[in-house]
Amino acid sequence: MLPAAVVVYFVTDSSGGNSDAHFLPGDTSHGHHQIEMKCSVCHTDFEGVKQNACTQCHAEELEKANDSHPDTKFLDPRNADRLESINAVRCITCHQEHKPEETIKMGVTVPEDYCFYCHQDIAEVRPSHEGMGYETCATAGCHNYHDNSALYEDFIIKHLEDAPHKESPKVADRTFYHNWAAEHETTPLTSKDRDVPDGAHYTQSDVYDWERTAHAAMGINCAACHSESPETANNDNLDWQAIPDHTSCQDCHAYETKTFLQGKHGMRLAQDLSPMTPGMAKIPMNPAAAHRELSCVSCHGAHTFDTQFAAAESCMQCHDDQHTNSYKNSKHYQLWLDEVNGTAPAGSGVSCATCHMPRIEVQEFGETFTRVQHNQNETLRPNEKMIRPVCLDCHGLGFAIDALADPILIENNFSSPSSVHIDSVEMVGKRLLELGK
Ligand code: HEC
Ligand code: HEC
Ligand code: HEC
Ligand code: HEC
Ligand code: HEC
Ligand code: HEC
Ligand code: HEC
Ligand code: HEC
Ligand code: HEC
Ligand code: HEC
Fold this sequence. Notes:
The structure is a single chain. The chain is mainly α. The chain has helices at 4-12, 51-64, 71-75, 77-80, 116-119, 122-125, 153-158, 180-183, 204-211, 214-217, 222-226, 254-262, 267-270, 297-300, 307-311, 313-318, 322-326, 331-340, 352-356, 397-404, 407-411, 424-434; strands spanning 359-364, 367-372. It has a two-stranded antiparallel sheet. Residues 14-18 have low confidence and may be disordered. Strand 1 and strand 2 (367-372) form a beta hairpin. Residues 54-55, 58, 61-62, 65, 86, 88, 91, 93-95, 106, 108, 110, 138, 144-147, 381-382 line the site of one heme C (HEC).
């Protein structure tokens, strides 16, 4: 039961605006601390936290991951009895909030050996699992509760013979609009074409930077970003906005904007809260960047849009933890420098963005494009999610599983070979032999 004062609080706070942290029973989890002040996004006035509070934001990602334990599995009468020990149909059975002392990584609030409740018979079904402790099921490189896509048997079978390194390691090229200029009947613009209204303040460098970008080359003028109604913009346009935000980009860059709003960089903007800043962060940040507000220009700059700068140097202006600061010692960084210097092919370097913002095939306008996924949390945890879209472009499966399971390599940003070895790949190989395949 909620204490009366809290009920009154939720009823009077149905606006969900900036409210008082006073009523929070404890710190909110790592995943949600940024939006904790918006109580109403999870809480209802009288009925506590309902299931759709969680699914409104997470259903899509769990579905995409082919969730191993969706509620439909338990609605099957043959599995219904398993719910007696643990009600796995509700998210909050395993993901409570505001209980920092009980919360382990990924917002999980059940003891690590709970797989036991439903899989007591695993050693009978899979003799290879004989003698394994239930607290080890979810060890990196073995199983996850939701996303097991990196470890599906048929997927592993395809990669049984993988060498540690691919022949010509490289990520896919980005593809964009085929030809924006032709489709929109625009021509390249130069400084004299700028449509800044008279009286607006700007500097020569704003114009200089813009003139050298893909935007000017594609006929995209100042007002396309700076005006509410670019179509009718002219030199005395009154709706000139000095500081455009992400909404000025979204019409032309819908996928990038949508994914940006889903991750830790944009999740406050998605809730109409003030932008996130390093000063509000729970992970180590550069104090000099404490007051920088996160938006598209944090990495891209207002007018330069240098994607190589955005991919590594920009990140290091804000992030300041052991993993980030070790990146420059890695072979990956050397490969990145070779790409930037033009001595190695495009796509062969490994920047921060190569891992955290992978290039993904996206269906749009009935066609397939390779775009940059801007939600850096999508592949972050559990980290096996990085294998398919990132590591496999350049490494074999077994090599990648071992590397990601080694906490030392996470800390030193993959600056040494892995010192751990996970048996998943061999176990599948052995099982195939036993089955005579
Ligand atoms: C990201 C979702 C989320 C946000 C945001 C959130 N909570 Fe919660 N809160 C939860 C969950 C989940 C529980 C556990 C509910 C349960 O066990 O029924 C909880 C439990 C509580 C409880 C304890 C209720 C009980 O049954 O013991 C209080 C009090 C509470 N929250 C207050 C707040 C206040 C005040 C805010 C805003 C300042 C807030 N919460 C924001 C998800 C959230
Ligand atoms: C307003 C949208 C929103 C709501 C409501 C919400 N979440 Fe989240 N949640 C997020 C975002 C954004 C993140 C951070 C990005 C990420 O980790 O995917 C996150 C993170 C998480 C994480 C941690 C992932 C990690 O790697 O640490 C878990 C677990 C989670 N949410 C479960 C829930 C559950 C359970 C509920 C319902 C009580 C809920 N969420 C409600 C948006 C939401
Ligand atoms: C029986 C326990 C259990 C239930 C029920 C559960 N989870 Fe989880 N969840 C976990 C565990 C354990 C993890 C840690 C990673 C893993 O093993 O998949 C996790 C991780 C997550 C993550 C972060 C990692 C990822 O794969 O995206 C999100 C988001 C999440 N859960 C959301 C939800 C939502 C939403 C629901 C309800 C629809 C839910 N969970 C129900 C146990 C549970
Ligand atoms: C509430 C019961 C329940 C809990 C708790 C539970 N499982 Fe399951 N799990 C099932 C059911 C039901 C199935 C589908 C039928 C079967 O294989 O037994 C399943 C299937 C699986 C599969 C097969 C993969 C797939 O995608 O179909 C794996 C792997 C798995 N569970 C691992 C785990 C791990 C690891 C944990 C603990 C982190 C866990 N389970 C906790 C009920 C549960
Ligand atoms: C692709 C979108 C885009 C185009 C095209 C564009 N701008 Fe901007 N501009 C922005 C954004 C976004 C900001 C906000 C920067 C921030 O938040 O700090 C900005 C900021 C500014 C500022 C404020 C001061 C500063 O430099 O940060 C001025 C002045 C300006 N732009 C002038 C121009 C002029 C003149 C042109 C055309 C020659 C132009 N812009 C073209 C997106 C654009
Ligand atoms: C009127 C449409 C339009 C608007 C508004 C717009 N862009 Fe663009 N943007 C484009 C086009 C077209 C390209 C070039 C595509 C190509 O190279 O084929 C582009 C390219 C880019 C690139 C890639 C540059 C490169 O060198 O590869 C970035 C980054 C970018 N835009 C960011 C933004 C941001 C951030 C905003 C908002 C501040 C914005 N754009 C606003 C249409 C737009
Ligand atoms: C303007 C500062 C800034 C820039 C630039 C920036 N970040 Fe962040 N980043 C943040 C903040 C603030 C958070 C949220 C941390 C929190 O909620 O505790 C964050 C969160 C993250 C997270 C999620 C961490 C977690 O534990 O969930 C990752 C991964 C990340 N950033 C990677 C990058 C990468 C890669 C780049 C460059 C391509 C980058 N960031 C650029 C400030 C920045
Ligand atoms: C954390 C840093 C960061 C933030 C914030 C960010 N970007 Fe990017 N963006 C990048 C990087 C890095 C690349 C290039 C990655 C590559 O080449 O693989 C990129 C590429 C792009 C591209 C061109 C590639 C493509 O086809 O997807 C566009 C367009 C773009 N970003 C738009 C945006 C918009 C719009 C926003 C805000 C909604 C935004 N970006 C916010 C780092 C960022
Ligand atoms: C080879 C791939 C790779 C490269 C390159 C890489 N990372 Fe990571 N990063 C990871 C993995 C894997 C994790 C760990 C996820 C986990 O297990 O929690 C991680 C974690 C993080 C986190 C979350 C830390 C936390 O405590 O929550 C941040 C922030 C981050 N990386 C930023 C960066 C930045 C900035 C760079 C570039 C200087 C970078 N990463 C380069 C793969 C990479
Ligand atoms: C664009 C290609 C590319 C991608 C993507 C990539 N790597 Fe690498 N990686 C390489 C190359 C090339 C080497 C260096 C081989 C050599 O010279 O020894 C390397 C080296 C390594 C090493 C060995 C470091 C050492 O000092 O011995 C580890 C560990 C590693 N990568 C892990 C990963 C993981 C994990 C991922 C995915 C998160 C990943 N890599 C993504 C290309 C890539």
